[in-house]
Design a protein that fits this description.
This protein is α/β, with parallel strands linked by helices. 38% of the residues lie in helices and 16% in strands. A four-stranded parallel β-sheet has the order 2-1-3-4. It starts with a strand and ends with a helix.
């Protein structure tokens, strides 16, 4: 049997009281950004917030997660779908990859349809830089609606 992939999840501090239900359901069902682990065992070894803008905890959370064996850090979908989306998501990804040598994936659970509808109306994700961020969390409409 293969060793489990050890992951950590970083959520936006706006949602610090989030119980993680959508992220954990997506992890269990291998949906959204967790579809990359289809057929593989995964172990969640870290879950924390960025500590609020501008993300002061990002400087420190990587060290603890790596000490606990994290191989992949997921920046939660809340950083993408919040109003406004996290202005620091690209910097968080670059910093964690460079400083701690871990892979960083933007997203956890699929983008709920209601958020896609609102961000489409607002034009939030028109810039090309959002395409790679959204790709792992943009499944079919039925799956998006299941996360509303």
């Amino acid at each position: 049997m293969n060793d489990p992939v050890k992951i950590g999840i970083v959520i936006c501090d706006r949602y610090r009281r989030c119980a993680g239900g959508k992220c954990f359901r997506a992890l269990r069902n291998r949906e959204g950004a967790f579809s990359r682990y289809a057929g593989r065992e995964v172990e969640l070894v870290g879950y924390t917030t960025c500590a609020g803008c501008p993300g002061g905890n990002v400087e420190y959370l990587g060290e603890e997660m790596v000490k606990n064996g994290v191989e992949v850090v997921h920046l939660a979908t809340g950083l993408i779908v919040g109003y406004p989306p996290c202005p620091n998501i690209d910097a968080f990804k670059s910093f964690l990859e460079e400083r701690y040598g871990v892979e960083v994936v933007c997203g956890t659970h699929p983008v709920p349809q209601k958020y896609l509808d609102m961000h489409t109306r607002l034009g939030t994700w028109r810039e090309p830089r959002w395409e790679p961020v959204l790709a792992p969390v943009m499944p079919d409409e039925a799956t998006r609606r299941a996360y509303d």
